[in-house]
Amino acid sequence: MARVLGTSIKRREDPALITGRGKYTDDLQAAGMAHAAIVRSPYAHARIRGIDTSAAEALPGVLAVLTARDVAAAGIPGVVPVGWLLPDLKTPAHPMIAADTVRHVGDAVAVVVAEDRYLARDAAERVAVDYEPLDAVADVVAALEDGAPAVHEDAPGNVAFDWEIGDRESVDAAFASAAHTVELDLRNNRLIPHAIEPRAVLASYDSSTGEMTIHMTSQNPHVHRLLMTLASLGMPEHKVRIVAPEVGGGFGSKIHHYADEAIVGLCSMKLDRPVKWTATRTETNLTDAHGRDHSTHCELALDADGRITGLRVDTAAAMGAYLSTFAPAVPTYLYGTLMSGQYDIPAIHCHVTGVFTHTAPVDAYRGAGRPEATYVVERLMHLAGEATGLGPVEVRRRNFVPPDAFPYQTQVALAYDSGNYGPAMDRALEMIGYDDLKTEQASRRGNGGKLIGIGFSSYIEACGLAPSAVVGSLGAQAGQWESADVRVHPTASVTVYTGSSSHGQGHETTFSQIVADKLGIDPEAVEVIHGDTDLVQFGMGTYGSRSAAVGGSAIVKSVEKIIEKGKKIAAHLLEASAEDLEYEDGSFRVAGSPDRALALGDVALQAYLAHNYPDDLEPGLSATSFYDPANFTYPFGTHVCVVEVDTETGSIELLRYAAVDDVGNVINPMIVDGQLHGGLAQGIGQALWENAVYDDSGQLVSGSLMDYAVPKIHNLIPFELDRTTTPCPHNPLGVKGVGEAGAIASPAAVVNAVVDALAPFGISHIDMPLTPEKVWRAVNS
Amino acid sequence: MTVSIQLEVNGKPVQAAVEPRRLLVHFLREDLGLTGANIGCETSLCGACTVLVDGDAVKSCTMLAAQADGASVTTIEGLAQNGDLHPLQEGFWEKHGLQCGYCTPGMILSANYLLAQNPSPSDEEIREGLKGNICRCTGYHNIVEAVKYAAERMS
Ligand code: FES
Ligand code: FES
To answer: Which of the ends of chain A has fewer CB neighbours closer than 10 A, N or C?
Structure first.
């Protein structure tokens, strides 16, 4: 049997997708299907004086127009809940449909259902809403100022929470005795996820059975079912089936439970027929949870040798108008806890204020808190390299957690299980040809032409939140395990039911490789089922780069149970003792007598026939596992970006991007590289082009692809990738996760490169995105 | 009110009566069931809906079905011949040029147009030629590789 783990097997998902046969939610049709269009607030903040639906209702083909009144009349809970509670968190209600006040542009005020997609839109235009516009505040800093318009009456000062981690006093002491200090005020720009498939839902309620099937754009169908039934529609969980068909990207935006999907569910219940809704690009951009949006002051203290003695961070993090599903966790437990980066820092304090604003909610977007933390730490490290005179490489090396210090307990709760940071830096320097680049940089500085800059980012990531008891104690209203049901059929082919549902990552291919490797069978003999609450036992879904580490480990656990059971069956058939059996390359063998062996198929068949079978064993050959990891996993790496900056125009050209990542063992290198590429594009996009801009009245002025610059193919360059391998010590595959690494590391690498290029101008910081205008202004001020 | 149109879609004649305002992409997806062309922005900015109209790459969200009267339209469903994948389809599969696949039909058809104009493009020409198509998943690195693979196979 050829090795299958660590091999770039082509993806089994692709044949359907490259021929147009893959079915995304909007591709689905149901008999009798109607179409919904949602009427949304054009104001960031307004009181609803009244809604006149008569003109819409009068249009032939319109089936229903529902408002908050109908939600109330339906006697359902009708809210969109938050799934992570912090101490003293303010949790103002988020109604499915706004009743008397709207709090961001795009807030739903009514829904129209009609026979046809076009008609539904026509009718939505005819819903007349009488608004009394109120003052709004969209900016995270302005929202904290005295007298700022209140987003919620029950959240004074627009503060959703006030959170801290670390030890303030020891940090103060470190600064008091520091030889060098550096500090920075920075903004982490608000991003719009832009999965190319907009959010969509097809809800089909059947009153004869009381059952509802919802096909929707979901990264975690079971989580959606739970929140949808419990908090929004008030249906029994077992009467609702949620299916995620092909999902066209998510990057976090399809984790969360939104009002819209619940509204469409209600429409279907009211009309007793299938109803479909697909967001337009503008709608999805107005209502998908956005990412980032921090304002931060941060400072680093170092001793005379350039060793870090203290780190102080104070952040205001936007929550938007309502608390989205996991929003409170993102700038706290996924941010403050990452502040040690790759470094041995003896004193850290991080304070975060969660802030309501009249904008779309902010929640997990690729990286979720970890890119923001990496940006703080790695920007400061760049400045520390300058302040100490050590430069960006040596200041990092000097402070890396040494390889013999693992497991390493940080000052901000996390305990890094394993790591070896130096080799990734070494390799990155070698790939990029650092010394030659330095020489070229120096010679260009003398010439008055375009400048080049070299930027580093040595990042740490924490993937696969765990274990459940710990995240529960931190406020999660969900477990963080994953499940796998592995069934060996009588003919020895295998079906895996995994709770980890894919939206482009290639789980079917990767998971089939895991089973094939562990059972010594052909990957083609393994089917992988996911994304359907009726088929799959409960599962947590795909986010936080958890699928291989947590979902994959659950599969291994089930395979191990199957092998154990198989040994008992084989021992019975071979008249041997189960303890003497080994399983290798698809056969059960008696140790020491190689001719006494049975193939997996012989054992599987007997497991189902149960004719010649151990008395104390149940028939069948399948196993279910719920795997709860012992800890997070901690991927790391060093990225180097090289840019050329034209100081005449402020424009930036990417010249090189080298990334050395350590994601532990790799199951499918091709897929792993692809994940890195995608993350890099998003992180580089954040650094250079992407920005969700609200004006002072709370209008989203970069809500379309005309104004919001998602990276295009000609903006980017080929990426140079390599790996080091430090396996995760606490999961059975030694894998760590790779989905977010690119987006976590790259913003700091790019900004550090640009600032490095502009060092002759004394520029120490420019806020993202680094538009030519900002660069030009910095150079000319 | 409807207008009647006659066109060829993936080599087969099609006749239909459509609302004048009906977009070609909705006509293909909903009336003909050809859901390969996807809608990512409905504003001609993402390219997910790209099809070939008389050989030109066209964003079908910005063309009316009525405007396609008399035209020959090729969608992703019409690209494979006699069950054999088109070299571009092979290239995207071979080189991991897709992840979620949502942009892929449009990307492949734009690349098809590019290769018809320029059978052996440089990396830079590929990046220039596909700039009307957005992919949020792949970072484009492997899309360039996929198109190069196809160009080699087709030459
Ligand atoms: S859907 Fe047509 S270009 Fe985006
Ligand atoms: S593969 Fe997902 S948008 Fe391109």
So the answer is: C
Give the pLDDT confidence of A42-101 residue by residue, as tens digits: 999 999 999 999 999 999 999 999 999 999 999 999 999 999 999 999 999 999 999 999
All domains of chain A in start order, with CATH: 14-134+196-249+254-287 (3.90.1170.50), 294-465+631-779 (3.30.365.10), 481-627 (3.30.365.10)
Return d(Cα A683, Cα A121) in angstroms, integer.
Answer: 36
CATH code, B150: 1.10.150.120
One domain, residues B99 and B136: yes
> Where in the sequence is the domain holding B64, given as residue range(s)?
3-78
Q: How many domains does chain B have?
A: 2
Task: Report the side by side order of strands in the sheet with A200-206.
Answer: A62-67, A108-114, A34-40, A275-278, A200-206, A211-216, A240-243
CATH number of the domain to which B18 belongs: 3.10.20.30
pLDDT at A541 over 90: no
Q: Which of B51, B100, B131 to mutate to test the interface with A (most CBs of A within 10 A)?
A: B100
Name the stretches of chain B with pLDDT < 70. Answer: none
Query: Rounded mean pLDDT of chain A?
Result: 96
Contact B40 A281 (CB under 8 A): yes
Look at the pTM and tell me if it is higher than 0.95. Answer: yes
**pLDDT tens-digit readout, A569-612:** 999 999 999 999 999 999 999 998 988 999 999 999 999 999 99
CA distance A388 to A673: 36
Asked if B23 and B47 sit in the same domain, the reply is yes
The closest ligand to the CA of A506 turns out to be 2
- The Cα A584–Cα A565 span in angstroms is 15
For ligand 2, mutation pick of B138, B140, B142, B144 (most atoms within 8 Å of CB): B138
d(CA A351, CA A316): 9
> A467: cis peptide before it, omega within 30°?
yes
pLDDT of A1 over the 70 cut: no
Q: pLDDT tens digits for A699-716?
A: 999 999 999 999 999 999
CB contact under 8 A, B34 and A278: no
As given in the structure block, the two tokens for residue A612 are 């010649």
Q: Show which of B22, B51, B78 is a domain's final residue.
A: B78
Cross-chain CB nearest to B105 (options A20, A673, A677): A20
Minimal Cα distance from B29: which residue of A? A27
The answer to whether the CB atoms of A20 and B34 lie below 8 A apart is yes
pLDDT value, residue A631? 87
pLDDT for A481 equals: 85
Q: Report in angstroms the alpha-carbon separations of B105 from A706, B47, B75, B137.
A: 22, 9, 8, 14
Is the beta carbon of B99 within 6 A of some atom in ligand 2? yes
Question: Cα–Cα distance between A349 and A314 in angstroms, integer?
Answer: 8
Cβ atoms within 10 Å of A493's Cβ, excluding its own: 16
Q: Report, as an integer, the average pLDDT of A769-774.
A: 98
**What is the torsional sign of CA A748, A749, A750, A756?**
positive
Please work out, in degrees rounded to the nearest 5, the angle formed at the alpha carbon of residue B60 by the alpha carbons of B56 and B65.
Answer: 105
Q: Do residue B64 and residue B101 come from a single domain?
A: no
The reply to whether B46 and B10 lie within a common domain is yes
Of B76, B96, B103, the CB nearest to A19: B76
Bridge partners, B5 (sequence order): B16
Write out the E strands in A499-612.
526-529, 581-584, 587-590, 593-599
